[in-house]
Amino acid sequence: MSKVAYGITVAPATYFCIDALGNCTNMSEQDKLILALIEHLRKKLLLIPHSNDMDTPNDDECTKKLIENRYKLIHTMCQTAKVMDYLESNGVVPRSICSRILHEYRVPEDRNRALLDFLFSRAKNAFRPLIEALYLSGNEHLVQLLDENFLLSNVRQQIDAEYRFPTAVGRHVSLPTSVEDEKLRNFNNNIESLENQISLFNLNDVEITKFDDEVQMGFEVQLLTSDLLEQYPQLDPMQRSNKCYRMLSRPRGQCLLINNVDAFKTMEIRQGSDIDASKLKSLYEQLGFVVVVRRNLIHKEMVNVIKNFADLIEEQKETCDCAVIIILSHGGNGTIYAVDELALDVDEQIISVFDDHLIGKPKLFILQACRGSQCNYRSESATRLWSTDSIINETNIDSGSHVITKVPKRSDMAIWYSTLKDYVSWRLPDEGSVFIQSLITVFARTAWHYDLVTMVQCVNRTMKEKFAAHESTPFQTPCFEYHLDYPLYFNPGCFDQN
Q1: Is 370 part of the annotated catalytic residue set?
Q2: Which of 174, 370, 399, 494 is deepest in the core (most CB within 10 A)?
Q3: CATH number of the domain located at residue range(s) 54-191 in this protein
Q4: For the whole model, what pTM was predicted?
Q5: Beta bridge partners of 298
Q6: SS3 state of residue 474
Q7: Same fold: 54-191 with 226-483
């Protein structure tokens, strides 16, 4: 029987060895080396006890953990349906409750909130299955919050074996050897694998960048950290060789997000738009913007909100470096519709409002709406799988009047339409629009080193590849109008301390 099992330190210079019989002996230098080797191997073999292998937390401890992490559980949990499927299969949540949550709540955060409220009533019995469900659905960041040892435990390996779940969210996962290694792996996954995302050896090589797997709810934007700046000094916003727009203020700027979804009189519900809106809000908040979200606005409200937002950014022009205006709604040729089905003229009532505002600083418009009724199908079967943001008849187009501006119209603006003039824009009810999801994925992964134009190219290429992948899908081509004077880098995570 081996006498060396575990070593403990009683005093700074006094070491002991405990054998299998419980005897304690002074350790020689050789024993210390052996002990260090055993400790190293113990970690390598993941012999770290998991709380499930010991005592199950009581109701108060479980409830406390759920309350402490309630905000992150509600606003960052993705794949809620998968989480509920696992909880239902383990008898934690009845099928009737799962069905009610899925059908009554369309917004992801509302679904998460309803599920969490139910789980509070079954805290102790639901806690362990919830952690397992979060792991199986790819919510590893939440697993770490609720139980930091889970990913290092034998329980996780048992779940992998039972459910044949070798990857977290479609990626290869190597077994961690310590909590520090696990944190490092999470950081690397946030950047994504080098061969699948970017070339760190050639930051200008756009062609190798792939965005096949979209970011999920709860994603994190890769920031331009001090480590990356040390490795790639050419990315330092203060040291760039070419003149660029200044993007260092805190906050970076203001972002207006109008999301017209389901209060239309006769137009169809824009299913999937709430998913787009939730991710867009998260994206621009992580990029440093203050995001103002307005939902289901009538014509008068849209006009007033846009005008008030233009006044707001003008008031803050000395402290903000950029403005972003995002509108998700039904649209037509040159128009976007409010929920009362009155149309705003895109040029006169949206874009031109900002002509004399935030002069000399970039203003980005992102418009997810149809611009006509033409469809670029490849097969008849495609019509059954997709929804559009188009309407058949143009009605009540309320145009603005001519104005005199201090600078040329459209100065320092970039206008990004989800589709070409006269064509429809496509949406998947359960996933959101292809354009917005592609945009979010590209920005989250590459805004730390790509400028806006390069990211536009990535979105164009990504959408072309997505639509070309299957015969049942239609085509859609975004349209980008560029009126900026200089390159625009978002510099996520970088702020001017002054």
Answers
A1: yes
A2: 370
A3: 1.10.533.10
A4: 0.60
A5: none
A6: coil
A7: no
